[in-house]
Design a protein that fits this description.
Blueprint lengths: L11 E4 L15 H14 L3 E4 L27 H13 L3 E6 L9 H6 L13 E2 L14 E4 L4 E4 L14 H17 L3 E4 L24 H4 L5 H15 L2 E5 L5 H8 L8 E3 L8 E2 L1 E5 L4 H15 L6 E2 L9 H5 L5 H13 L4 E5 L20 H9 L6 H11 L36 H6 L4 H14 L1 H5 L1 E5 L6 E8 L2 E8 L5 E2 L4 H4 L4 E5 L10 E2 L4 E7 L2 H9 L1
Parallel strand pairs: 1-2, 1-13, 2-3, 3-7, 7-8, 8-9, 12-13
Antiparallel strand pairs: 4-6, 5-6, 10-11, 14-15, 15-16, 16-20, 17-19, 18-20
Helix pairs in contact: 1-2, 4-6, 10-14, 11-12
This protein binds alpha-D-glucopyranose and calcium ion (CA).
The site of calcium ion has 6 residues, from loops.
Length: 558
């Protein structure tokens, strides 16, 4: 393994600080709380943390609108406290990744405050200004352009009005980005998760997009734009000086276009966060809900597994701060423990680096608030106001229940006590009422909890070369309720079988497994021993077997 590939054997935990743990009793999660809970994170068995943005921000988009890249939000602490967290994480053997959000800043960033004043100041070309807007929609609200009276021009914002897009064509802006990277790398962080990084280079002249496509009508002019790889190469150079890992977020990216970032002369990223498998129950955004299709899910997973095999490396995830909770989507709240543990097995044994989002390991589920005004996330509100406006409010609120990013942002459920042990003070956002059952304290004590199951999976994965590096092969791709895949290395093979059904299922083993001795190494139903073909609701099993040299080779090729 090359030195730069250290991330391949690790797994990460994502922390969205505002809702993780409140250390100073003001109702807002912070870095004091994180410091206290690092042992919990370590005990889960992960090897690193990705911090969603912790920088000063007016929170139009909860931290993804950054007002200062080289400081800490006063709600969260200060740089000294961040250093304490970083040191403790490193002492525990945890890597730390920061969120690098450089497609846009906050409109309250000093650069924008200057840029908006006139057309000839040192920052006037830091953003994208035009006399006449084009027809692009913002992905988050209204049109992508906002008029600035002081300057007498409009600025581009692909996200909220308070997130003006940076002009990456300006070499000074790219220098700023590199300085931000150096600032954090010098402090000792281990790499970056790079926000909407495939959007940073816009087509020259900013031509109109397709008139009839809603929300993403300009996408062909800003996704994988003309200079993207030149800019990424500059950032890569900085990362290489430090041996840092770079993980790109690639909204609406195909695996083909991901390859251009991950391989060959234009390789700049170590991994790309794909969205394909998050579209198994929706169209473009969770707000446009469709029935869950396991076939869609599996085909997305296999497409990425197979295409990147031997060439690059996958990010494995089912949740993050942008998606509703996965049990509520791809599993079942009725079969809460069963589907929560099955979902863990469905992805933790794939080839790639797993990410677990805070609360996912507890099986946290979606929150259902009574009115749209109780939701904090702007996109929940704008979707409610601008899409499906012909539907009655109750139906649209149901869409919000199913789709809101806020379901991932309710306070972490630590105990069955007041405010779920998240804070001594009334939390900034509603606690999910299921916290008495779903919480870390209870699940730590219960041997067969979802939490302990995650621990088991992570430990198994870490110990096995086949699960880390083995080849991937999917069986029965067209089966609508069973996900079955194999990981194979040397003469060891693992077969993972997951039922996505709330009813019992008969499962037929692939022919090459039928005559083999199969050892059941993991199952989410207690007391299961043999190879009974009958799968209970949301049952998942992993078998290990030995394969002969010749069939091992064939499997590795296939
Ligand atoms: C990314 C972030 C998301 C944010 C958006 C704009 O998708 O994950 O939370 O709203 O970029 O920065
Ligand atoms: Ca606090």
């Amino acid at each position: 393994m090359e030195q730069a590939e250290w991330y391949k054997t690790l797994s990460f935990y994502q922390i969205w600080v505002r809702s993780f743990a409140d250390g100073n009793g003001d109702g807002i999660g912070d870095l004091y709380g994180v410091y206290e809970k690092l042992d919990y994170v370590k005990a889960l068995g992960v090897d690193g943390i990705w911090f969603s943005p912790v920088y000063p921000s007016p929170n139009a988009d909860y931290g993804y609108d950054i007002a200062d890249y080289c400081d800490i939000h006063p709600d969260f602490g200060d740089l000294a406290q961040f250093r304490r967290v970083l040191d403790k994480a490193h002492r525990l053997g945890l890597k730390v990744l920061m969120d690098l959000v450089v497609n846009h800043t906050s409109d309250e960033h000093r650069w924008f405050q200057e840029s908006r004043k006139s057309r000839d100041n040192p920052y006037s070309d830091y953003y994208i200004w035009r006399d006449e807007p084009n027809n692009w929609d913002s992905l988050f609200e209204g049109k992508a352009w906002e008029y600035e009276p002081m300057r007498g021009q409009c600025y581009l914002h692909l996200f909220t009005k308070k997130q003006p897009d940076l002009n990456m064509d300006n070499p000074k802006v790219r220098e700023e980005v590199k300085n931000i990277m150096r600032f954090w790398l010098d402090m000792g962080v281990d790499g970056f998760r790079e926000d909407v990084i495939n959007f940073i280079s816009k087509r020259e002249g900013l031509p109109d997009g397709l008139p009839f496509v809603p929300l993403a009508n300009g996408i062909m002019h800003y996704k994988d734009g003309p200079h993207i790889h030149e800019y990424m190469a500059e950032f890569r150079e900085v990362a290489n000086e430090y041996g840092a890992v770079q993980i790109g977020e690639g909204p609406m990216t195909t695996v083909r276009s991901a390859l251009s970032y991950l391989t060959g002369d234009t390789k700049s990223l170590d991994m790309m966060i794909s969205f394909d498998h998050m579209l198994a129950d929706c169209f473009m955004t969770e707000y446009v809900h469709l029935p869950f299709s396991l076939i869609r899910f599996k085909s997305a997973i296999s497409r990425w597994q197979n295409t990147l095999a031997g060439r690059s490396w996958n990010v494995l995830y089912l949740e993050n701060h942008d998606h509703p909770r996965v049990i509520s989507r791809y599993g079942s709240e009725r079969f809460w423990r069963e589907s929560g543990t099955m979902l863990a097995m469905s992805y933790l044994f794939l080839q790639g680096t797993p990410f677990i989002y805070q609360g996912q390991e507890l099986g946290m589920t979606n929150i259902r608030l009574n009115s749209i005004d109780q939701y904090m996330d702007l996109t929940s509100r704008t979707n409610y106001e601008r899409l499906f406006t012909f539907e009655p409010p109750s139906k649209r609120l149901k869409r919000v229940h199913d789709s809101s990013r806020d379901s991932a942002r309710t306070p972490m459920q630590w105990t069955a006590g007041k405010y779920a042990g998240f804070s001594a003070h009334r939390p900034w956002f509603t606690v999910n009422p299921n916290y008495k059952r779903v919480n870390a304290e209870r699940e730590t004590a219960e041997p067969d909890s979802i939490l302990n199951f995650y621990k088991k999976c992570l430990a198994l994965r870490k110990r096995s070369r086949a699960l880390l590096f083995g080849s991937y092969r999917e069986f029965c791709p067209l089966h609508p309720r069973i996900f079955m895949y194999e990981r194979c290395y040397g003469n060891t093979a693992y077969l993972v079988i997951c039922s996505f059904s709330s009813r019992p299922q008969e499962v037929t083993l692939p022919p090459e497994y039928r005559k083999k001795h199969l050892q059941l190494v993991l199952c989410n139903y207690d007391g299961r021993t043999g190879r009974s073909p009958e799968f209970a609701p949301y049952e998942a099993r992993m078998y290990r077997t030995r394969i002969y040299e010749s069939s091992a080779k064939a499997a590795q090729k296939g």
